[in-house]
């Protein structure tokens, strides 16, 4: 049996919802991203690294995820991943092909069992590195709410080669595709939705300064700053103008595949969840906003006749 193909890395995410492109100034003036490209109905935001789109703002009727964006190292890996997932009978939205959007490159798309669109791309446009202090460099992780935690964990592992790095009680699993402790995490919930998206700033000093920049502009964290147990990463959560939860993070744990063993972190030992004991547990309001708004995903959009625009 040949070894299974693993997803290479998380590139970013494109969000959609009513009025999302109009929230661009928040990300430019406060969050620390910059506009990389804009076209009809969608704005692509970059960080200081080479990735052309960390966060996309797309106009749409339903608040949710337009697509989650992953990288593969090469066309050979891309084709092998496609063979793997289509061979398992998963829902793919066409064979690997050249993308004709601004980011370019080669790849394909598929749906996860919660009908979320996943886009895999290699040979994407690369931007010049920017030397700017206290700005997000990349997307660290995307956390998804799901009504079937165990089933979805098994799916990400079996189909895309993710591995469980840790668990938070019986409520959450942290999944890695490379040395980062988690690129995707899943949370037990009543319906599929986005829990939050985390942006990595390079150092703890810059992490604090980024929080300070937000505070000076009138935005205090809705939760944090604190330091998580699983992943060992500092966190500060904010609520975006469209009601999505976004996070600054840094220093995410790096996993050594030869020695790491997943553990179940307890939730009833405060210092295990909040190492600095600065954040406290999430408030009911924070939990509510992290539950997100129900997003039926791609088929609903297909009914709105946007399928022909899938590769835009
Ligand atoms: Fe997070």
Automatic annotation (TrEMBL):
UniProt keyword annotations, A-Z: Dioxygenase, Metal-binding, Oxidoreductase
Superkingdom of the organism of origin: Bacteria
Protein's recorded name: Catechol-2,3-dioxygenase
Keyword Metal-binding attributed: yes
Phylogenetic lineage: Bacteria, Pseudomonadati, Pseudomonadota, Alphaproteobacteria, Rhodobacterales
Record keyword Cell wall biogenesis/degradation present: no
Species name: Celeribacter halophilus
Domain VOC, chain residue ranges per copy: 9-123, 138-251
Record GO terms (molecular function): dioxygenase activity; metal ion binding; methylmalonyl-CoA epimerase activity
GO terms of biological process kind: L-methylmalonyl-CoA metabolic process
Gene3D superfamilies, alphabetized: 2,3-Dihydroxybiphenyl 1,2-Dioxygenase, domain 1
């Amino acid at each position: 049996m040949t070894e299974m193909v693993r997803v290479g890395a998380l590139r970013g995410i494109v969000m959609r919802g009513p009025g999302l492109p109009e929230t661009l100034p928040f990300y430019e003036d406060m969050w620390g991203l910059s506009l990389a490209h804009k076209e009809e109905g969608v704005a692509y935001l970059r960080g200081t690294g080479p990735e052309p789109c960390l966060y996309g703002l797309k106009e749409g009727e339903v608040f949710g995820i337009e697509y989650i964006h992953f990288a593969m190292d090469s066309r050979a890996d891309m084709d092998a991943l496609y063979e793997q997932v289509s061979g398992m009978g998963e829902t793919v939205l066409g064979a690997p092909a050249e993308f004709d959007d601004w980011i370019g490159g080669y790849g394909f798309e598929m749906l996860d069992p919660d009908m979320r669109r996943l886009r895999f791309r290699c040979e994407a446009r690369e931007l010049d590195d920017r030397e700017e202090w206290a700005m997000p460099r990349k997307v660290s992780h995307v956390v998804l709410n799901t009504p079937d935690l165990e089933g979805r964990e098994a799916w990400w592992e079996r189909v895309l080669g993710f591995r469980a790095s840790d668990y938070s009680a019986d409520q959450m699993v942290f999944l890695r595709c490379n040395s980062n402790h988690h690129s995707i995490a899943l949370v037990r919930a009543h319906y599929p939705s986005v829990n939050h998206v985390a942006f990595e700033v390079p150092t703890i000093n810059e992490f604090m300064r980024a929080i300070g920049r937000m505070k000076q502009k009138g935005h205090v964290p809705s939760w944090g700053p604190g330091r998580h147990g699983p992943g060992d990463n500092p966190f500060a959560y904010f609520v975006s103008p469209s009601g999505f939860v976004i996070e600054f993070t840094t220093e995410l744990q790096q996993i050594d595949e030869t020695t790491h063993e997943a553990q179940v972190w307890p939730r009833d030992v405060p210092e295990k969840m909040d190492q600095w004991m600065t954040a406290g547990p999430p408030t009911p309001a924070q939990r509510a906003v992290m539950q997100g708004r129900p997003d039926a995903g791609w088929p609903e959009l297909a009914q709105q006749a946007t399928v022909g625009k899938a590769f835009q």
